[in-house]
Amino acid sequence: MGPVPQTVHTFDWPDRLVIGTVGRPGSRTFYLQVRAGTRLLSVALEKEQSAALVEKIDELLDELMDTEGNRFSVPERVPAELVDNDALDQPVEEQFRVGIMGLGWDPSTAQLVIEAVPAQPVDPQTLEPVGPEPEEALVVRIPVGAARAFAERTREVVAAGRPLCPRCGEPMDPDGHVCELPDDLR
């Protein structure tokens, strides 16, 4: 990554960190939302980014659990008191749309570190970023139990989209679906 962004929204041990959606299945917008006291910040991201983040969180937590002599007590299951199925906090105001996300581990505080920077326009020929470096970033630090709860909720949110067509496997809209399978496969 290039120069350090001018504004870094940092949340250490936030009161709440969730991914939720706004809109109907098929046209949902995904948000990563973090709250600490009265501070509330929401960033928009893609469904695929949400799913990839959870996959990486699970991998990291499982790796920590399997590490010989690991002094961090990583829960295998979500502690019941950390389950959060509530809707996003209102108002949902998009701070920025996420371009790149990073995930790390801070052994000094036994926390996962999630970083997100805004999407940048890219040159269609070279796929290199064009324009100025992002001016802001989001950094969230959460303990392992909260990370398990965040991952489980996010998996449920990602899976709660449109049902898949039993024939072609594509998502079906509430108002109908045109199956794109060739005639010989129907």
From TrEMBL:
Keywords: Coiled coil. InterPro entries: DUF3090. Residues 43-70 form a coiled coil. NCBIfam families: conserved hypothetical protein (TIGR03847). This is Repeat protein (TIGR03847 family). It comes from Georgenia satyanarayanai.
